[in-house]
Amino acid sequence: MKQVIVGMATCGLSAGAQKVYEKFEEVIREKNLPVTLKETGCIGMCYREVLVELQDGDGQNYLYGEVTPERVGEIVESHLLQNKPLLPWVVRGPHPTEDDSFFVKQKRIVLRNCGHIDPNSIDASIHAGGYHALRKALLEYSPEKVIDEVTGSQLRGRGGAGFPTGVKWGFARRSAGDKKYVICNADEGDPGAFMDRSVLEGDPHSVIEGMIICGYAIGAKEGYIYVRAEYPKAIQRLRQAIAQAEERGFLGENILQTDFRFRIKIKEGAGAFVCGEETALIASIEGRRGNPRLRPPFPAVSGLWGKPTNINNVETFANIPWIILNGAEAFASLGTDDSKGTKVFALTGKIKRGGLVEVPMGITINEIIYDICSGMREGKQFKAVQMGGPSGGCIPALMGQIQIDYAQITKTGAIMGSGGMVVMDESTCMVDVAKFFLNFTQNESCGKCVFCRLGTKRMLEILERITEGKGKGSDLDLLEDLAQKVRETSLCGLGQTAPNPVLTTLRYFRQEYETHIFDRKCPAHVCSPLLTYTILPNCCTGCGRCAKSCPAQAISGERKEPHFIQPEQCVKCGRCFASCSFGAVFKD
Amino acid sequence: MKASEPWERAGDKIRLQGFNLELWKYEGEPGSLIPLLQAAQRDYSYIPEAAIHYISDIVGIPPAQIYGVITFYTQFRLKPLGKYLLRICNGTACHVNGSKLMGQVIEDELGIGVGQTTEDGFFTVQSVACLGCCSLSPVMVINEDTHGRLDPRKIRKILKSYQSAG
Ligand SMILES: Cc1cc2nc3c(=O)[nH]c(=O)nc-3n(C[C@H](O)[C@H](O)[C@H](O)COP(=O)(O)O)c2cc1C
């Protein structure tokens, strides 16, 4: 039977997958075709959304990219009815395509089912190996053996800090307590990161299975998934998957006819970045303000409602079934001495191919950017890559040879983080990037520690004045001094890492800061107060929109005649640039 | 007491209208405060003062403390939303692709800033940290519809289409 499978994760839906799906539905019904229509999760090639896979009866798969409702008719007509694939639109299939290089260096463990199975169907998951690891763990392994296996794989937590997962489980198992909890951290708050969301939307059962195995290993009977409220689709898929797993007896009493029982509840976050931090997250589940607290005691000793609690990230849990099924050694054979297995990255920014990739640890930054992502857009130069979000830093292009693992990335001053990678070119201002992240952390600071609350604010003010052309020679030393103090006096990871974006850009792009301060120029043409705006007479149509948008009445001109900007009056807000539809406002 | 608030007094109890009865399942369960607030916001688009007192009765937490929880989390609102909620993404990818400029265009077109609602109650503008569809950046979401790869001209067209659709 022929199948049409539409990629319907958030990125696909944003690009219009729903309309494409409905169009296929309509055409298939109209023509009464013997074709099954299904949906799937994130395939990873966000740059080609909407993606549709067409499986013709004889085992050939064709992945169509950039499908629009208008193209649906043609695809059905030519491929489904006349068996003639529309090769120019096929991005992956039996014949080689230029997009194949996107997958060559990838190794899929966490994303093994993402974009392949229908996430709405537990049968699809089981068919792909889902819950086989649970069976093996429950029926063949003792809890200790499960922990040994996870420890042996040398899997490190994928939520950012990289703590060895097996060791953590061992702590929770040995902690005395009548009740224990498993928590899955799905708060994914780093801007520019969507790994966890894609896994939850594309393969929720693997995460649930990982949690049940963890419950068995540490002796917990209850689990919580704390999901970011901004992820409605992931929440809906999780609810459905939990109900299905209960129905099949993978959750509930006497799982697989053993005396092990386990239940999972979902808690929706309420929009606070700091709630990704484990002690804040626990406070939030308990219904309180999400303020982090001092550790120790660690959650493994005193967590949710004071009980021993094991908390792991989504990606960490999704690795577990694979490790149990394939063995610790298979996992540990991938990667570097320091970091084993694979890592999922969300790639965005100025690269040609943005998307979700999973690569073995030890791959270099250059391999990801040039081989997988096919280099930079518009022929621009690779300048830096931001890793680790607001807690991370900017690694300059010169260091592109670095092998990605926890130790190497930490050495640069950035952190591995949860896996967001934002690639920047020469049109990105590094001072502006540092300001962006600091603005974020300053906003999200819970306010408990003085330097995190006020120190970040003062740092932000300094950066603001530098980008407004009012920087002073002493500002850079002051920034470094404050950064040091924020780092040393903050209680949780938020404050301890908040200065990283500033410190790494100062380390690798100090000259750019100095150009802002001493020459009053922004080399990347981003910081508007440092630019001069002029109107190009040959492009200006005299529509008058810029004049209307100008808050300082600095723009004048006759209707339908080229306008001009009075430099003495211009306040450099950039509104005229934004308002012009003809590219007539020029900034330098 | 404002007439527009969806509640009434019954004896010494406050009764809310249109409050989802399913909520009662949370009664007695620890940690139910945030789900209750979320349910109230889902029903009313914001958290009316009466709902705070009502929930306080259920969970046995003083209203002042509940207020503290509400103001901690950015999701919660104490004022009603406009007909259309426009969320402009300010994630990293959107930022490096010009979301600031897009924010300015929206501000100029609607005459309101982030966190405000137009006088006619039509649009509320919010800024969010990341919507997670970075490959479409810069992005904004109006109610449930995502609009990606924005530029000033596209934004104006989109806003017009909502305004003329009413
Ligand atoms: C400010 C802050 C935000 C965090 N956000 C997240 C997050 O969104 N997701 C996550 O898994 N871990 C996050 N963490 C890390 C968690 O505290 C915790 O280390 C992690 O969930 C442990 O899981 P792992 O061992 O599987 O990595 C955050 C930490 C800090 C300090």
Report on this structure.
The complex is a heterodimer of chains A (588) and B (166). Chain A is of the alpha/beta class. Chain A folds into 5 domains: 97 residues, Glutaredoxin (3-Layer(aba) Sandwich); 210 residues, Rossmann fold; 84 residues, Ubiquitin-like (UB roll), CATH 3.10.20.600; 90 residues, de novo design (two linked rop proteins), CATH 1.20.1440; 57 residues, Alpha-Beta Plaits (2-Layer Sandwich). Helices cover 40% and strands 15% of the residues of chain A. In chain A, the strands form 5 sheets. A 5-stranded mixed sheet of chain A has the order 2-1-3-4-5, with helices on one face. A 5-stranded mixed sheet of chain A has the order 11-10-14-12-13. Chain A has a 4-stranded parallel sheet with strand order 8-7-6-9, with helices on both faces. Chain A is globular. The mean pLDDT of chain A is 95. In chain B, helix 1 runs antiparallel to helix 2 and helix 5 runs parallel beside helix 6. A 4-stranded mixed sheet of chain B has the order 4-3-5-6, with helices on one face. Chain B has a two-stranded antiparallel ribbon with strand order 1-2. The model of chain B has no long low-confidence stretch (mean pLDDT 82). Chain B has 2 domains: 78 residues, Orthogonal Bundle (Arc Repressor Mutant, subunit A); 82 residues, 3-Layer(aba) Sandwich (Glutaredoxin), CATH 3.40.30.10. Chain B is elongated, with a radius of gyration of 19 Å. Helix content of chain B is 39%, strand content 16%. Chain B has 166 residues and is an alpha+beta fold. At the A-B interface, helix 1, strand 10, strand 14, helix 17 and helix 24 of A face helix 1, helix 3, helix 4 and helix 5 of B.
